[in-house]
Design a protein that fits this description.
Elements lengths: L21 E5 L3 H13 L3 E5 L2 H11 L3 E5 L7 H10 L8 E5 L4 H9 L4 E4 L4 H14 L4
The protein binds manganese (II) ion.
Manganese (II) ion binds next to loops.
């Protein structure tokens, strides 16, 4: 049985003929996950949800999203290791990843970029700022 967390939420008002970009949100905290996905859907993105790192690896390989938002602190497989594995796997290596963390620690950004993440932002999310980073990466790195 498929967990309801795997349901892809589709925006209700996407213009016909416009290719909807798909974002995979990787976040172990249910409230953060739901809030962020709702805000992204409202912006016109199609959102899939992964509840942990293993889930993210499977979903990313199976669905090839246009971009991944990756929480860094997760139990078991954390966001750094998950990003590293995604970037080492040919099928998922070209998918841009934005790391998200509640930690204001200086080393987090460097560690995330070192793990292969393409950008980094902090939680709570500043939506306008995050959307700017999402759009910049989607424009830079179109997946054929
Ligand atoms: Mn977390």
């Amino acid at each position: 049985m498929v967990s309801p967390n795997h349901d892809v939420e589709r925006p209700s008002r996407s213009a016909p003929g416009v290719l909807v970009k798909r974002i995979l949100v990787v976040e172990d905290n249910e409230m953060n996950r739901d809030a962020l996905s709702r805000r992204l859907v409202r912006q016109g993105y199609a959102v899939a949800l992964a509840v942990d790192g293993d889930d993210a690896l499977k979903l990313a390989a199976a669905t090839r999203p246009d971009l991944i938002l990756m929480d860094l602190s997760m139990p078991e497989l954390d966001g750094w290791e998950c990003a590293r594995r995604l970037k080492q796997t040919p099928a998922t290596a070209s998918i841009p990843i934005i790391a998200l963390t509640a930690h204001a620690m200086l080393g987090d950004r460097a560690k995330a970029l070192e793990a292969g993440c393409d950008d980094f932002d902090t939680k709570p999310v500043d939506l306008a700022r995050l959307l700017g980073k999402i759009e910049a990466l989607l424009a830079r790195n179109p997946i054929p």
